[in-house]
């Protein structure tokens, strides 16, 4: 809508207070439209139907605190935080570098246990209340979905088999990096922990530190070679996620010791790989070469960072 920038407040999915919430005042109504980032961040309500984008969220108070508001508040705020990470770290203006507006829709479908990037916008289900609660309540989820948009603008990794698992892993990696940069005190190497199984504490949908906790492989020799889930894109991502974990935090895996170089460098190295070397058909082996080359470009061919990257991929059986 055309209006004036305003600043409201909100309550998130986990009943967290969210402030500031960038909104737009137009004709006495406040809209979830943030004009301070790129060409804007817009958050919509599908009203539990599946037509997109739905209705731009608004109220007359600029305080978004109802139960219906909570998923929208987090989707809006976390999209802004993810935008901020890419802009402040790499100078990237929105997912495409051109400031294209970020659109999110919440309350998609009925008890929908997922979230996705549909090629033009982010979409979040409410979950069924047992497996998931509204998925935009997880910063790592929001950053995961928005990173798919970045990937589609850059390497455009095909969403199946090894390139698809790389696509998924890159989204998990940046979901985690953004979490560390934004919520450092409660950041972790778990994926979806804030919105997964509300009745079970300490679990997550995936773990980068130990993918096998969720039945995902942490070594290439254990990769899934079937056709389910587009060739196991959410399963074989565990192999790359484990390598990324080792790059950042270090550790010994399958007899290979890796010296961690930290979360910031993990992000810069994978960002350069995704924007400069990976292509739509990249395999795991080609991804190793891409990430090694990115580290070499950034830190030097014989640097500790490049050595760490090589060792991490060797540790998960990718050569
Ligand atoms: C439309 C079906 C395909 C969904 C693919 C999207 S990108 C995806 O990967 N969604 C994430 C959502 C997510 C992210 C982080 C943490 C929790 C949940 C995902 O992992 N979906 C799982 C449930 C899946 O599709 O198997
Ligand atoms: Ca997490
Ligand atoms: Ca849980
Ligand atoms: Zn995904």
Automatic annotation (TrEMBL):
Location within or outside the cell: Secreted
Q: Which domain of life is it from?
A: Bacteria
Q: Which cofactor does it need?
A: Zn(2+)
Q: Which GO terms describe its biological process?
A: proteolysis
Q: Which UniProt keywords apply?
A: Calcium, Hydrolase, Metal-binding, Metalloprotease, Protease, Secreted, Signal, Zinc
Q: What is its EC number?
A: 3.4.24.-
Q: Its function?
A: Extracellular zinc metalloprotease.
Protein family: Belongs to the peptidase M4 family.
Annotated protein name in UniProt: Neutral metalloproteinase
Give the shown range, full length included: 224 to 542 of 542
């Amino acid at each position: 809508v055309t209006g004036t920038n305003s600043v409201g407040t909100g309550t998130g999915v986990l009943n967290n207070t969210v402030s500031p919430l960038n909104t737009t005042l137009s004709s006495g109504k406040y809209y979830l439209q943030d004009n301070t980032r790129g060409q804007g961040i817009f958050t919509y309500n599908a009203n539990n139907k599946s037509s997109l984008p739905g209705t731009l969220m608004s109220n007359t108070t600029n305080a978004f605190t109802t139960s219906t508001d909570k998923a929208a508040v987090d989707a809006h705020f976390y999209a802004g935080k993810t935008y901020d990470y890419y802009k402040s770290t790499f100078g990237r203006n929105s997912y495409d570098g051109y400031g294209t507006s970020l659109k999110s829709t919440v309350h998609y479908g009925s008890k929908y246990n997922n979230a996705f990037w549909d090629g033009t916008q982010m979409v979040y289900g409410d979950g069924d209340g047992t497996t998931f609660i509204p998925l935009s309540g997880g910063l790592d989820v929001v950053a995961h979905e928005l990173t798919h948009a970045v990937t589609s603008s850059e390497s455009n990794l095909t969403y199946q088999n090894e390139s698809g698992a790389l696509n998924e892993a890159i989204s998990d990696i940046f979901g985690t990096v953004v979490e560390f940069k934004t919520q450092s005190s409660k950041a972790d190497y778990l994926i979806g922990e804030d919105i997964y199984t509300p009745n079970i504490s300490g679990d997550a949908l995936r773990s980068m530190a130990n993918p096998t906790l969720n039945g995902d492989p942490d070594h290439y020799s254990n990769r899934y070679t079937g056709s389910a889930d587009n060739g196991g894109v959410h399963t074989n991502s565990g192999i790359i996620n484990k390598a990324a974990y080792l790059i950042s935090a270090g550790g010994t895996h399958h007899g290979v010791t890796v010296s961690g170089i930290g979360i910031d460098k993990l992000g810069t190295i994978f960002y350069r790989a995704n924007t400069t070397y990976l292509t739509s058909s990249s395999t795991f082996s080609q991804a190793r070469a891409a990430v090694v080359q990115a580290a070499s470009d950034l830190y030097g061919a014989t640097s500790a960072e490049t050595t760490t990257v090589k060792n991490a991929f060797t540790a998960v059986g990718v050569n």
